[in-house]
Amino acid sequence: MIGRSMIAALLAATSMGAPAWAAGTSIFPIAPDEPHAVTVKARGDGKADDSAAIQQALDQSRDRTGHGIVFLPSGTYRITRTLVVPAGVRVYGVGPTRPVILLGANTPGFQQGVSTMIVFAGGDQYNVGKIPVPVPTVVPRERQVRDANSGTFYSAMSNVDIEIGAGNPAAAGVRFRMAQHAFLSHMEFRLGTAFAGVYQAGNVIENVHFRGGRYGIVTEKTSPAWQFTLLDSSFDGQRDAAIREHEAGLTLVNVSIRNTPVGIEIDRGYGDSLWGKDVRFENVSKAGVVISNEKNVFTQVGFDNALAVNSPVFVRFRDSDRTVAGKGKAYKVAAFSYGLAVPDLGHMGDYRTEADIQPLPAMPAPRLPAIRDLPPMTEWINVRTLGAMGDGKADDTAAIQKAIDGHRILYFPTGFYKVTDKLTLRPDSVLIGLHPAITQLYIPDSNPAHAGLGPVLPILESQRDGDNILSGLGLFTGRINPRASALLWRSGEKSLVEDVKIMGGGGTPTADGKMLGALRVHTGDPVTDGRLDAQYPSIWVTDGGGGTFANVWSPNSFAQSGLHVTNTSTPGHIYEMSVEHHARNEIVLDNVQNWEFLAPQTEQEVEDGPDAISLDIRNSSNLLFANYHGYRVTRTYAPEKSAVKLTNSSDIRFRNIHINAESGFATCDEEGCGTYLRASKYPFDNAIEDVSRKLFVREREFARLDIAAADRKIAPPLPTSAKVEKLEDGFWSISGAVVDAKGTLYFIDRRFQRIHRWSEDKGLEVVRDNALDPVNLAIDASGHLLILSSLGPKAGVYSVDPDGPPDQITLIRPTPVRAGGAAKTLLPVNWWNNGEFRDQLDPRTYEFTTLAEMFARDVGTPKAEEYLSPDGSLSLPAFRVWQQGPVDHSGWRWSDSLNANGLIGGKVGDRLFVTNGSENATYSGTVGPGGTLTDLQRFANRGGESVAIDSQGRVYVANGQIFVYRPDGKEAGRIDVPERPLQILFGGADRRTLFILTHHALYAAKP
Question: Same structural domain for residues 656 and 612?
Answer without folding.
Answer: yes
